[in-house]
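Notes from hallway chat w/ T.B., transcribed later so I don't forget. T.B. wanted the structure written out for a chain they're using in a teaching module, and asked if we could keep both sequence and structure tokens in one place. Agreed to drop them here.
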Amino acid sequence: MRKTILGITAFAVFLLSIASASAGLYCGEPTVTPLIAGQKIDAGTVSVWNDIDYLYVKYETTGGWCLTETHLAVKENITYIPQKNGNPIPGQFEYSNTSLPVCTKNFMYTINMSKSGFDVNDDLVIAAHAVVKTFDAYGNVTASQTGWGNGTNFPGKNWAMYFQYRVQGCYYTSNYCGESTNTTLYAGRTIDTGMVRVWNDADTLYVEYTATGNWCLDVTHLAVKENLADIPVNNAGNPEPGQFEYSTTHPTCTKEYTYEIDLGDKGFDVNDGLYVAAHASMFEYINGIKTNQQTGWGDGTRFVQKGSWATYFQYTVQDCPVIPKTLKIPSIVNMLIAYPGANSYWGVTLSGVPAGYDIWNGVWNGWCADSRVTIGQGTHNNVNAYLSTDPLLATKCPSCVNDENWAAVNYIINQNYAGATWKEIQAAIWNFTESATPDFGTVSGYNKTITQMIIDDTNANYEDFVVGTGDWMAVLLSISNQVQLLFIEVDP
């Protein structure tokens, strides 16, 4: 079933989800390896993943351990990593940060894959080095260790390690709603301190602030309006961030923050052009000291040409087309059927299904498509299986499409009707699978009012429904046109 995000919330986003969350882009699962300190201490993790353009390497510590330095090498061959006598030289690694804020718990590198020459299916060698420390309540160092992302030892004599990652291909899921709009988060007018990114799914608009380097978010203010004139400004035309609809004061040195705005609550619709004013109070955090306080804005067009340099940018709400769901099913199965099922007309137990398919041996909710055609309970072998959404269904199984409206049936099995038992659902299904009046004998006692409500709702809505990722699909089980046609619900 489709999920709806309720209300307007703001939350800190876990970076590991960023690469795939925006715009429904899926690029496989991340590779996660322990961050080992002092050869034997589990001090956290190193995670690696990619999207279409970038490779992400994120360090995270656990317990009382803190990052104070990181050095990273990512190469296509181990011989390209700087070494002496087979021992890596972290100080010569391509990526490093040796001035992390006191007790940094996570740090991420973002690597442009095109500039680095990395492509899909490239096998990369990653050496992730760190210096980790623990501190007492007064900020004194109580322990210090060298750390490495766990993997294979380098050929030298020390215990330094590397691990491997294969660049993943990417595809769009049913949550794909177009590309995000990204703009630079400038502080003090000219300092690149990070990024503001805007995207939406079917229900929610997301505005994400990310601070990079030593820069941190102190306070953020956000205005999102359909008309530029609705953004609060003073008499001179300069924006008034303190009057913006959304604002948050952040914990010390917050690096990422995302606002979620319910599209329905704000009246925003597909193709609406929005004006976004993303303000931030920024500072640098160096050696535990806040310094260089600056005002920041998401880059765009200036509100006024003279005076304040405050800027806004624009975003168009993207459409979210449903990508039809596909299933891999065998052409022949064996089944045992029993009436009634636990929550359906038939209880269908499949057998003889080889591994590697999207249906499997086990019990499924089953439904009857022919109330006036019989089938015996028990075992039936060599049953033909078909997808109800197959565009060639009429050719493959002509008897499966005599009167059956499978689009309507798929709509019904994806709803949760209050008060409906399997009897009311089955009676409604027959309305869309038979042209003649069904034989309701096997659902005697069903509530006709509820069944009619299901029928009316389906007639009003099924034509706009597409079985997408996360939805249930009817898989047809047919023996012959002389035997009752039935179907099972295949879960998402």
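Follow-up for T.B.: The chain has a mean pLDDT of 90. Might be a good example for the class.
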